[in-house]
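Record type: ASSEMBLY
Status: queued
Input:
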Amino acid sequence: MMKAYFTDLEAGIVKAINDGNSSHRKLYTLELARLGKRLYSGTDPIAWCGITAPFDLLNAMGVTSCFVEFIGAMLAATGVVGTFIEETDHAGYSSDACSYHRSVCGAAMKGIMPVPEFLIGTTCPCSGGLAVLENLARRFDRKLFVLHVPQEDSAGSVRFLADQMREMAAFVSRITGRKMDGGALRKSVEYSNRASATMREIFELACRVPSPITSRDFSNFGIVMALFFGREEAVTIAESYRNEFKKRIDAGDNGTSGRKFRLLWIQNRIQFRHGLEKMLEEEYGASIISDELNDITWDPIDPENPFDGFARRAISIPINGTTEKRIGHLKKLARQYRIDGAINPCNWGCRQGAGARGLIENGLKEIGLPVLNLDVDCVDSRKFTEGQLRTRLEAFMEMLDNREPLWQS
Amino acid sequence: MKADRREEMKTEEIMNQNGGAIGFACAYTPLPLIHAAGFAPCRILPNVDCPDQAGRLLHDNLCPHVKRILDRAMSGMIPDLKGMVFMNSCDSMRRLHDAWKTVMPDMNAVLIDLPAVSIGASLGFFRDELDRLSQTLEQWGGKAIDDAALAGSIGLYDRIASLFTALREKAGRSDLEGGWTTLQKAYNRASVSPPEESIAFLETLFLREGADIRRGEPGVPVYLFGNMLPEPEAFSLFESCGAQIVADDLCTGSRLFAAVETTGNHKLLGLAAGILQRPACARTFREESPGRLGDDVAAGAIRAGARGVIGYTAKFCDPYIARLPGVREVLKRKGIPFLLLEGDCTLRSVGQQKTRIEAFIEMMR
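Status: finished
Output:
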């Protein structure tokens, strides 16, 4: 089912591009489809991972790797997630758990998760994600390697994580029989650095007033780009985004005419089809121009000694560490993007993300930024109450409309 | 206020009159280290009646253990602590640390990282974290910790662990006056008392040996595992339903007072290894045998001679939520009946499930 889905998706996009209908978003989706196709090819060595695994390292070692939440998001996007979540209900999984993880477990139980060569668990971002990888390792009877991502950004933490990543590379070699090729690793790091540098440019362009981007442009962008790190596609996609935004700026096209409000989306987007972003843009001239996870929080990685850089990158991401650090990052984004209001979907079941909603709301209030806390299950569309959410968003937008602008023009 | 709680508050007062108390919330907290620094470790238990306010800072779907501890802080119902030590055991505990700093901005607080697996580099990293904690405790007014002091404190806590082992055996034989209810009261008292006082108190429980050997129809032997169940009356409830608890593996029970087996000369490394390698809660596992929790629960039940297993977990606890289906599967395969209860660390949440517990026990008779 998934293999056919990704194959059809790839074919459809390739046809559209060949017909002269190319776009930055199409290139991004095309590579997503190709990644999905590789995962389900049955020929590539694959690894299921946690979100903060060093995908460029795994790509350099010839392993097609992916965080498991990607499958949850894909099942949600295709509208079939309910079947898989129900499977976990029958097996005794609590409905209080994160739906990304429940859907992945359901997919494994129903046999639509390809059996990996091995698994890489990461302690960041969440306890639930690591537990799912442990479960999958048992189900598939495959070896699991766990990367403990320390909370503190210190020299000791970097050394500890870098050493674990070296051990991880040795673990991968033992399983796949492929030795680490120094040249391939250097090239991989160079691709990651080029992609990251271009992503910085993209985010700077998005900060412009008016911003050249629409709500859809950045949906899942930062988190998914990590999967392409170490591959040329990452550079291609990033450059295509940059070129598109430059073109829009040069053409004086800021996306939606008459747009007024600049919104910040906290953590993940809603993964299934819904009409809220369209409603915000069309009825209120409001666009999500920044997402919490769309940022480059690390320095370029040294291709000659990449492990410390890989470690610093994993430790630096905003959802690792204290909520204080996270709030600091959100404040930075709010200032850079001149944000009018923030929306926190508070994905049900996400202790890491939604857990701190009151702290985040209070923290952003310190700079005068209003936050709308929703209660959404970002994966399980069966629980989606669009009407109620629409009312909350409408009230929030009316409130923003009646406020003095937060930032001086 | 309940009598037990009054007793705990009294103990907390005693601690404050001595070297001062350091609060903690998680069973992975290195109690000997805190004691070696001259402080008395004092667990902030969730079973205190106070207004529900934590939702202002933490989402409704967060662990009730964590939220009740925050409720205590927000209501001013905590002892006068010199500081609070949090372990990075799960997402909720991290969020508690974050919220605590907001609610108690003038109180010392530290978050100590805790590896999810206990092999290789993790031990060295955890040792470094314990070293950071010892330095932090010194900054908070504690003594510099040397190996001799640490060895002495580890010895005290190992003595507590061995006393509890003996008490559990007595309770398992129905030889302990008050049964598992008495044992849970002892766990609670020891978790808020200096170790010297805990040892003295626990030793008095042995003086009453044979005073109240239970007669009549024996209960059905049950193994109890999970996380936070500090209410002693909950154990009375289990027993009133016909269960005879023969062993436990709970954060508020045996897991907090497990012996730390230190080897070698480096005491801090030994403490790190001892903590990581003792009976694990769901959040700590072995890479080489993933999904082992079910096997461990089954082994614990068989070893204790239990005919059934009751799991009690706080709602929204991800480490357990994700692993319970695996536990269920293993127990089913081994033919061991299993009842899972979820609650909010209060007696009320267990009491509501009395009929289920009775039916479960009846089924095994």
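Annotation: Residues 2-179 of chain A form a domain with the Rossmann fold fold (CATH 3.40.50.11890).
Annotation: Chain A touches chain B through 50 residues (CB under 8 Å).
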